[in-house]
């Protein structure tokens, strides 16, 4: 397998280690009666460029590498890491972490996992996909094209980010798995002023690709046009309504609803511990029968996709909710083993310096039958929310929020006027039972999502068709 | 207590990096090196759950070629890697634009006095001892009341680090600091009625931490108090932000008067210097030299001397929060706030929490906020909230699944009172804040 050889060469040999050395560290970890052990090697290259005030203002570059060693015994985990990939340091770390294992449990081999998997992205180094002058030129062109869109534009900020991440995962059965993960992102923010009123619009995108992604289909310039359009809409926005009302969510990025309302609550760790509002509810109705929701790490080139997760398990398309019925949870190895189910390829970590846990990949709802315009027409009075900022959830009470950044009133079946950003709040276990129409216009987001959990950030994707929810609380100021 | 030998080791690396930058042709450079070691343990349902050993280091350099700037960082301090890092920064600087405002701080503003701020108190504790504290804390929370039904566990964290900063103007300083915390989170109720809450204590010196008993009991009390929460009908009413939520309001204010927001014109407090932005009883000041406090520092992230100063007094905005670049952009002088504020303190009023509840009389007490619904450009504010409904100064019942909304410009002006129940667990020190009125959306 050339990829495995390439990564082994760069991470191990590049630091003067051989695969036998990995075996020696693993032998120390396995000298205690553990259920599982792994060593995670990582090398990351990152760069960012930013433009504001019409000039290239900043650029930064970073290289980091390190290794984390972990043992798991029952539900107990010992973990240590170092930024020095050196044998004595890894051996010492292994000796430290195995001390957590005090109760003699039988060493077990892990569940067999596939040894090959499709490549969802190329092992490209995006930092080298354009020369630096070409990156600068792209930023400058996006900046000047965006400024031409509207005379009310006061400031444009454009940023370009790329990461090139190589990981090598050694598991207790002696297997080695490798992945090389490119990730790019571009963002355009526009500040616009009219009659002393100042508003902002922001748009971006990206994926597991190189910089050529932004040149395809005019994407980079489209972000600029979209940022301008959003700022224009916000300049017209009036006070948002307050109270419980029918809400129609647009396709794509509004799928952040699924991420917050049900996604986190269906992560294996919370359900194993019984701390999620969804605990013990597999087989129960948690959504209307129009709703089928999946977490799919196997989409080609998407921001949330992975060939293998950070425990070496190939990612899957996992059905979370099928026609309204809760089907299962997203799992890493530890929680899968303790719950007696299979890992689903959702074991993710921010870096070698963090412990893996069940995390989402790309979470979306499958398309329904309704024409999106028919959905709008069916609403007498309500809110149409087309774009969102971030969200958050309390997985125990099930309460979740997400905040609109582009929304309109619906009056008598028509979209009338734009309203200011407002937070929507609902209850995860019942919000999807109020979905009364699902559009046929399923779309994924443009590739900007980052999910935070226990202080760890990972890139994710979301998506959905247009949805009608009969009753969600809208947090405007117009009481 | 400062280990000078370790500080000198880091200083040598920083100097090496600055020399290398000069070697490669940079007209100016600054570099920072930090090393952090720590231990985190957690216990759940009476047994250890995780033991994590932390060991991080990072080094970053910014180079200037005239008015062009480039930055690079790495966690590999081998001399080859340092050379490569400087080279990467220089390469970026070549492509950056000339920016007349860019450059090192004015030499005369760099800190020259470095008092001992009493920030370093390493905790001599091993994993076993830390686990025992976590188990004790969680046991107290779980045993507090039979309503406690489950647990997310308790954790003990201890970190100790060394930071060195230097620049080509001859500034080269370092210090060591520590930070320890104890936290706990439990659940009460079951099924649809399940609730969770947490409490934590954090300090530079472990002896200043709340005890396992205090943290455990407070966690349990907070969790139980949330049981049987209901929504509210949509309305306007007065809102009291509990101290731990009030720091977010003040944080939004600081964000809006920070140089970056101002020169980008993305602030709802643009051009408000020397104007009334809050009621005249409000004073907000910075206290960088408090011994042992979490936000203390004698210089900012550019080496500029920090100052004890008023940011708001008599409700009037007296000063922005600036670093060198944003100050030059605005035609002003840096306020020593590159990297943020230092022990920002809102002068407490005369009421304790009970007194603040009486002042609230009838309205909403907010103890948790959700989401990021704050627009820094317009000041529009809309966030998910939970807390308690209060009548005649007495808590009636817990509330959840509501939003609170307003505009920060008005909210800041409509502060009715600030409590003396100051939360000292962060860099912003403020008591509870009572606002005259906000829009509540609910069922």
Automatic annotation (TrEMBL), chain A:
Residues 243-476 form the Metalloprotease TldD/E C-terminal domain. SUPFAM superfamilies: Putative modulator of DNA gyrase, PmbA/TldD (SSF111283). Keywords: Hydrolase, Metalloprotease, Protease. Transmembrane segments: none annotated. Belongs to the peptidase U62 family. NCBIfam families: PRK10735.1. This is Metalloprotease TldD. The gene is tldD.
TrEMBL record, chain B:
Residues 121-227 form the Metalloprotease TldD/E central domain. Residues 234-442 form the Metalloprotease TldD/E C-terminal domain. SUPFAM superfamilies: Putative modulator of DNA gyrase, PmbA/TldD (SSF111283). It comes from the Bacteria. One of its GO terms (molecular function) is metallopeptidase activity. Pfam families: PmbA_TldD_1st, PmbA_TldD_2nd, PmbA_TldD_3rd. Residues 29-93 form the Metalloprotease TldD/E N-terminal domain. The keyword Transmembrane does not apply. Keywords: Hydrolase, Metalloprotease, Protease. Belongs to the peptidase U62 family. PANTHER family: METALLOPROTEASE PMBA (PTHR43421:SF1). This is Metalloprotease PmbA. It comes from Methylomonas fluvii.
């Amino acid at each position: 397998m050339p990829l495995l050889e390439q990564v082994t060469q760069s991470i191990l040999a590049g630091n003067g280690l051989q695969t036998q050395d990995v075996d020696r560290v693993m032998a120390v970890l396995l000298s205690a009666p553990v259920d599982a052990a792994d060593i995670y090697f990582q090398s990351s290259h990152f760069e960012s460029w930013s433009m504001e005030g019409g000039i290239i203002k900043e650029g930064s570059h970073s290289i980091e590498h390190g290794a984390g060693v972990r043992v798991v015994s029952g539900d107990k985990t010992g973990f240590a890491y170092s930024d020095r990939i050196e044998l004595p340091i890894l051996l010492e770390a292994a000796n430290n972490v195995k001390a957590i294992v005090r109760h003699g449990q039988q060493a077990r081999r892990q569940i067999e996992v596939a040894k090959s998997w499709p490549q969802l992205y190329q092992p490209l180094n995006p930092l080298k996909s354009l020369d630096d002058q070409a990156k600068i030129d792209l930023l400058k062109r996006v900046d000047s094209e965006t400024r031409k869109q509207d005379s009310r534009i006061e400031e444009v900020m454009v940023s370009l980010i790329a990461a090139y991440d190589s990981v090598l995962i050694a598991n207790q059965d002696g297997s080695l798995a490798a992945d090389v993960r490119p990730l790019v992102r571009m963002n355009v923010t526009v500040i616009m002023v009219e009659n002393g009123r100042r508003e902002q619009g922001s748009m971006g995108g990206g994926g597991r690709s190189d910089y050529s992604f932004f040149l395809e289909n005019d994407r980079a310039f489209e972000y600029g046009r979209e940022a301008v359009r959003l700022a224009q809409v916000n300049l017209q926005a009036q006070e948002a309504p307050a109270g419980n009302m029918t809400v129609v969510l647009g396709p794509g990025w509004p799928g952040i609803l699924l991420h917050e309302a049900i996604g986190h609550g269906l992560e294996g760790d919370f359900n194993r511990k019984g701390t999620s509002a969804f605990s013990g509810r597999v087989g129960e109705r948690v959504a209307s029968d129009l709703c089928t929701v999946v977490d799919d790490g196997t989409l080609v080139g998407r921001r949330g996709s992975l060939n293998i997760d950070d425990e070496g398990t190939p990612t899957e398309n996992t059905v979370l909710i099928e026609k309204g019925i809760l089907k299962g949870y997203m799992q890493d190895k530890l929680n899968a083993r303790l719950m007696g189910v299979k890992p689903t390829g959702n074991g993710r970590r921010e870096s070698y310096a963090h412990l893996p846990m069940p995390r989402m990949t790309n979470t979306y709802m499958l398309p329904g039958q309704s024409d999106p315009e028919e959905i709008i027409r069916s609403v007498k009075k309500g809110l149409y929310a087309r774009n969102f900022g971030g969200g958050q959830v309390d997985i125990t009470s099930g309460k979740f929020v997400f905040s609109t950044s582009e929304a309109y009133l619906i009056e008598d079946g028509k979209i009338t006027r734009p309203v200011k950003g407002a937070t929507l709040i609902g209850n995860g276990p019942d919000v999807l039972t109020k979905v009364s129409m699902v559009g046929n216009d399923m779309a994924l987001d443009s590739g900007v999502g980052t999910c935070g959990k226990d202080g760890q950030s990972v890139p994710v994707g979301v998506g959905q068709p247009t949805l009608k929810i009969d009753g969600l609380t809208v947090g405007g100021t117009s009481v | 207590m400062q280990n000078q030998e370790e500080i000198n080791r880091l200083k040598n690396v920083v100097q090496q990096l600055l020399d290398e930058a000069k070697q490669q042709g940079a007209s100016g450079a600054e570099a920072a090196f930090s090393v952090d070691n720590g231990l985190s343990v957690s216990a759940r349902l009476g047994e250890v759950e995780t033991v994590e050993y932390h060991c991080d280091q990072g080094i970053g350099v910014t180079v200037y070629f005239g008015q062009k700037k480039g930055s690079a960082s790495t966690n590999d301090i081998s001399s080859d890697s340092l050379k490569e890092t400087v080279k990467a920064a220089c390469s970026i600087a070549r492509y950056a634009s000339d920016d007349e405002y860019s450059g090192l701080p004015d030499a005369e503003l760099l800190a020259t006095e470095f008092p001992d701020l009493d920030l370093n108190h390493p905790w001599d504790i091993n994993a076993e001892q830390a686990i025992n504290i976590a188990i004790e804390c969680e046991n107290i929370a779980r045993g507090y009341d039979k309503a406690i039904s489950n647990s997310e566990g308790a954790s003990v964290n201890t970190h100790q680090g060394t930071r060195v900063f230097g620049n080509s103007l001859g500034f080269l300083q370092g210090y060591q600091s520590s930070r320890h915390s104890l936290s706990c989170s439990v659940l009460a109720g079951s099924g649809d009625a399940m609730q969770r809450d947490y409490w934590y204590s954090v300090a530079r010196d472990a002896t200043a931490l709340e005890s396992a008993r205090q943290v455990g009991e407070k966690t349990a009390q907070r969790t139980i108090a949330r049981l049987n929460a209901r929504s509210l009908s949509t309305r306007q009413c007065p809102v009291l932000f509990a101290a731990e939520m009030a720091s977010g309001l003040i944080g939004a204010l600081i964000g809006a008067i920070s140089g970056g927001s101002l020169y980008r014109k993305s602030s709802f407090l643009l051009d408000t210097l020397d104007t009334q932005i809050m009621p005249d009883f409000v004073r907000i000041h910075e206290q960088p030299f408090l011994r042992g406090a979490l936000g203390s520092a004698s210089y900012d992230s550019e080496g500029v001397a920090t100052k004890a100063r008023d940011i708001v007094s008599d409700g009037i905005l007296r000063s922005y929060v600036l670093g060198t670049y944003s100050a030059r952009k605005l035609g002003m002088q840096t306020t020593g706030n590159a990297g943020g504020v230092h022990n920002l303190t809102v002068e407490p009023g005369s009421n304790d929490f009970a007194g603040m509840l009486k002042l609230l009389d009838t309205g909403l007490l907010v103890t948790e906020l959700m989401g990021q619904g704050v627009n820094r450009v317009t000041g529009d504010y809309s966030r998910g909230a939970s807390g308690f409904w209060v009548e005649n100064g007495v808590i009636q019942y817990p509330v959840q699944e509501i939003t609170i909304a307003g505009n920060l410009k008005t909210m800041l002006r409509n502060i009715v009172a600030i409590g003396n129940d100051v939360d000292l667990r962060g860099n912003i020190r403020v008591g509870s804040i009572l606002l005259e009125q906000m829009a509540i959306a609910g069922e």
